[in-house]
Amino acid sequence: MRRSAMAAVAVASAAGLLLSACSKADDGTDDAPKGAGANAATKGVVNESTAKGGTVTYASSDAPESLDPGNMYYAYGFNFSRLYARPLMTFKPGAGEAGNELVPDLAESAGTPSDGGKTWTYKIRQGVKFEDGTVVTSKDVKYAVERSNFARDVLSSGPNYFQQLLAGGDKYKGPYKDKDEAGIASIETPDDNTVVFKLNKPFADFDYLASMPQTAAVPRAKDTGVDYTKKVVSTGSYKFEKYEEGKQIVLVRNPEWDAKTDPLRKQYPEKIVVNLKVNKATIDKDVMSGDTMIDIQGTGVDAQTQAQVLKDKDQLANTDNALGGRLVYTAINTKVAPFDNVECRKAVQYAIDKTAVQTAMGGPIRGDIASTVLPTDVSGYEKADTYATPDNKGDVTKAKEHLKACGKEGGFKTSISARTDRQGEVDAATAIVEALKKVGIEADIKQYPSGKYFSDYAGVPKFNKKNNIGLIMMQWGADWPTGYGFLQQIVHGKAIGQAGNTNLSELDDPAINKLLDDAIGNTDEAARTAAYTEVDKKVMEQAAIVPLTYFKVLLYRSPYATNLVSSSAFSGQYDYLNIGVKEKK
């Protein structure tokens, strides 16, 4: 998750994926388009086309947590939302690391900092309209930030950076409680095309915050709170035609979108359809046949499909194996007994068999064994292994030593949560349960749907405590490609929320908080990077996170989809902004 991720995409070497392959079309035995070659979309645009028309079909194994740009936090949500919501800044479509380039979207240019980085000013492009023809103004951007960051009891699923950083952010109650349309004083709108953010401290990465969908304009008069997800008012190239909850989403071209105000979007397909709650194996089959273009969650093919693909060089020609810039880990809840004792947490660190977890998740092709919080491709990463075990298979003796030190020599019972519709995650949790059993810890798995995982279950501290959930399966990628963008929302005390929480360990360590706070205001990049390395070490010393694997994704590239490019800005997913469709013959 950004629950999400923004990180460098690299070509994988596993399972011979560096080898170019071809499709059956090469020998004339199949009418399917030729495969472009393994990993082609990590290096450039595949099936590039300017053809307009047709329907691009997506599918999802669950319903999204929200389509509201101010109430989402999955990478695929950030990616998909750009079709109908224009943030101030965004990421330029590009392969691999080229996809990390930040460019203006609703804004005319990048933000102008002043006051030592405590004030950021943006000019909005003139002529941008909502789908009803109303001109977008700076007030609509200000309102979007207020509703998304200051109404956590209503919109709980997004990050809360603006609430933490804006001057007076700790006092403003949000637009649903504070009915004064003047809103928070630290977001100024001196004219219809200027928005100014006044911060409580310097923040070097503010342009990255401006790229979040939370800055996509929302008209106050059309806001329906939590129900806004059902009828988002578009500023992008597409608008909602249908929202059938849990079943289907349909987007059609937005007639008020003007290419003259938008250098990024191309509006190729006539229609975009997202089918929800489709069995994962069915999605894979449909993507391979061309009946579906994209698995929207971007988590890669399932285990059965992976085994099939790796045996067939023709099918390999249509795959992309990309580093996701993400960490797969188990969060240890420091507020649920006995994990409020660091020695009990260390026992889990030593007990887990990471090799078994890696195997359960699909092997090395789905991720390298991890030993740090920061992934290898995020600034601040430094090789370390605080809780090393022989062949990464766990160390029963050391685990029992720490159990004894925390007064639980006889073991104890706890629960581990995982997402129902993510079989690899459930399988990993199962491997962890088996490893813990060997040291006397009895853990049962509690499964919850990914669409509600953070809003109703794992992301609700009271729920975890009530249900004795001491271990939480998690996957995380940087909100933007810096150490701060990766770490802040999962280890800083101020990120802990009563719902939609992503600091699942509920870690609130003053030394860690200070390191992060000081680093982001430091103009010395080397010093910032060193601070992120130190945060990583301290989190591991606290044993609050068990790194499992540095995530890699194996995507199947539909030969009938055009303009496919695997972007580092969205966890290696295909960039959804300009995907088109090639007619099946």
Short characterization:
The protein has 585 residues and is an alpha+beta fold.
How would you describe this structure in keywords?
five-stranded mixed beta sheet, 585 residues, six-stranded mixed beta sheet, single chain, 16 helices, alpha+beta
What is the topology?
Elements: E1 55-59, H1 75-81, E2 89-91, E3 102-104, E4 112-114, E5 119-123, H2 138-149, H3 161-165, E6 187-191, E7 194-198, H4 206-209, E8 238-244, E9 248-253, E10 271-275, H5 280-289, E11 294-295, H6 303-310, H7 313-316, E12 319-332, H8 342-351, H9 354-360, E13 367-369, H10 396-405, E14 412-419, H11 423-437, E15 441-448, H12 453-457, H13 461-466, E16 469-477, H14 483-491, H15 510-520, H16 525-541, E17 545-556, E18 561-562, E19 580-581
Parallel strand pairs: 1-10, 1-11, 14-15, 14-16
Antiparallel strand pairs: 2-3, 4-5, 5-7, 6-7, 8-9, 9-10, 12-16, 12-17, 13-17, 18-19
Helix pairs in contact: 8-10, 9-11, 14-15, 14-16, 15-16
